[in-house]
Design goal:
Helices cover 42% and strands 16% of the residues. It is of the alpha+beta class.
Length: 85
């Protein structure tokens, strides 16, 4: 699951807290592109759940990646590209 996020062109940052969104467990910015996951006081299971949630945002907004020059094959090719490099 973790490999899908950088494979789609996003960076992942594990941070104590989300600076611009206090109380949030995670955020995804397609402008940067960046996924931040808050870790302070959270269990590994909670962090994993948030990672899955943010991955859904990455995949939902993967249209930009699908439209990049040289990328062909649609959504499932994106998934294969992200997992296989």
């Amino acid at each position: 699951m973790v490999a899908l996020i950088p494979g789609a062109g996003y960076r992942i940052e594990l941070v104590d807290a989300i600076a611009h969104s206090p109380g949030a467990n995670g955020t995804t910015s397609s402008n940067d592109p960046l996924v931040q996951i808050a870790t302070s006081g959270r269990s590994a299971a909670a962090i994993c759940k948030t990672l899955a949630h943010e991955l859904a945002h990455v995949l939902l907004h993967a249209t930009a990646l699908l439209n990049r020059p040289g990328f062909t094959g649609g959504f499932w090719a994106l998934i294969s590209h992200a997992t296989l490099g």
